[in-house]
Design goal:
Blueprint (H helix, E strand, L loop, with lengths): L1 H11 L20 H10 L3 E3 L2 E6 L2 H12 L5 H19 L4 E4 L4 H7 L3 H9 L7 E2 L12 H8 L3 E2 L8 E9 L3 H11 L6 E9 L1 H4 L6
Parallel strand pairs: 2-7, 3-6, 6-7
Antiparallel strand pairs: 1-2, 4-5
Helix pairs in contact: 4-6
């Protein structure tokens, strides 16, 4: 019966680990036990200004996120959600967050991918959130190396009627590269009132962000 279940899973999911390319274990589709443990050991709370993150966007983490977003291995959202759940909820309590906002993706990208990866992470972590709209179908940020192009790419990308007056806000993204996207989200929120505090949480922080001014 165990072999039959494995064969059925292999028909539904890829039998290759997203990181090492070896066969996945019974516990997690797309991720073998050894790679899961390696990723889990990297997860801890880091802070840079008012931005929290749990790991760096390099090596195994880069492969994991790429597989989740670009290869449409949606189940990896459950893996990431479980990895960050405890850390994320500690931040929610410590910062006394009133509203959680995932960075939205465009309608075109949602149709193509089938899901917003940030919302999936929050769903699996058991965190409620409010949505903004992305009204501009931007280029993927990883394709743009110049920071000015990144800023121009996301300029005027978001809108929404969410009232943030006097609220503590947590904006959530999977990766922060330079902070350009987050700044545009903050600008769109400011049109509907002055928040008390804006904090950011990302699963991973890119090396390009380490030298950036991430104040919002």
């Amino acid at each position: 019966m165990k072999n039959l279940n494995r064969n059925i899973r292999d028909l539904i999911f890829s039998s290759k680990c997203s990181i090492c390319g070896e066969r996945h274990c019974d516990k997690e589709p797309y991720l073998c036990y050894n790679c899961y443990k390696k990723i889990a050991k990297k997860i801890r709370i880091h802070r840079k200004g008012n931005l929290y993150y749990t790991t760096h966007y390099d090596g195994d983490v880069k492969k994991l996120i790429s597989s989740f977003k670009l290869r449409k291995r949606r189940y990896l959202g459950a893996v990431i959600g479980r990895l960050v759940e405890e850390k994320l909820k500690l931040i929610l309590a410590e910062e006394e967050i009133d509203i959680v906002i995932p960075v939205p993706i465009s309608s075109a990208r949602r149709r193509s991918r089938g899901y917003n990866q940030v919302e999936d992470i929050l769903d699996y972590a058991g965190v409620e959130y409010k949505r903004l709209r992305r009204i501009k179908d931007t280029q993927p940020m990883y394709k743009l190396k110049d920071e000015e192009l990144r800023k121009e790419n996301v300029l005027g990308s978001f809108e929404g009627s969410l009232s943030v007056e006097g609220r503590n806000i947590l904006i959530v993204d999977d990766i922060v590269t330079t902070g350009s996207t987050i700044r545009e989200v903050v600008k769109s929120l400011e049109k509907n009132g002055s928040s008390k505090k804006v904090v950011v949480f990302a699963f991973a922080l890119a090396n390009t962000a380490l030298a950036s001014d991430l104040s919002f």
